[in-house]
Design goal:
Order of helices and strands: HEHEEHEHEEEHE
Strand order of the largest sheet: 4-2-3-5-8
Distance between the termini: 31 Å
Shape: globular
Number of strands: 8
Strand content: 25-35%
Number of helices: 5
Radius of gyration: 14 Å
């Protein structure tokens, strides 16, 4: 997917792309650049399950519980960087929470925020978006997958 397409989706959803101007690859860097808390930062993770690849979204304070995912989707592992690029069109660290053509799982803790900060399509861009819009746009399933 192109950057232009992500910008169109962001506009359609009332989201905002933040040009940071330097690499933002960690929750800590995102909180520092945006003045938000780790709870408001989201991680868009590509997981390869036995059944299909998944986009799993958790807040910055949480980690994915592979056991919980495996009970739902069979054996799971994190995608390799080249698989992330192939499946999403984005590099690791830049994967946005919307516009990715994968079955999407959003942890309910993400929805406790008025807005969240996620990947903006490149490692020097972030996306500020209402979490409910992610669920609606992606047709995401809200499932507790954090530990």
């Amino acid at each position: 997917m192109t950057m232009g397409k992500l910008e169109e989706i962001a506009k359609e959803l009332g989201a905002e792309i933040l040009e940071v101007g330097r690499p933002v690859k960690t929750v800590e860097q995102a909180t520092r650049e945006t003045g938000t808390s780790p709870k408001q930062v989201i991680k868009s993770l590509v997981i390869i399950s036995e059944r299909e690849p998944l986009l799993v979204i958790v807040d910055g304070e949480s980690r994915v519980d592979m056991g919980k995912l495996e009970r739902l989707f069979g054996k799971c592992r994190f995608a390799k960087p080249e698989e992330v690029k192939e499946l999403t069109g984005y590099e690791v660290g830049g994967v946005p929470p919307v516009g990715v053509p994968l079955r999407t799982i959003v942890d309910p803790k993400v929805l406790e925020n008025e807005y969240v900060i996620g990947g903006g399509g490149a490692i020097d861009r972030l996306l500020r978006i209402e979490p409910q819009k992610i669920v609606e746009y992606q047709g995401a399933e809200v499932v507790d997958v954090r530990r």
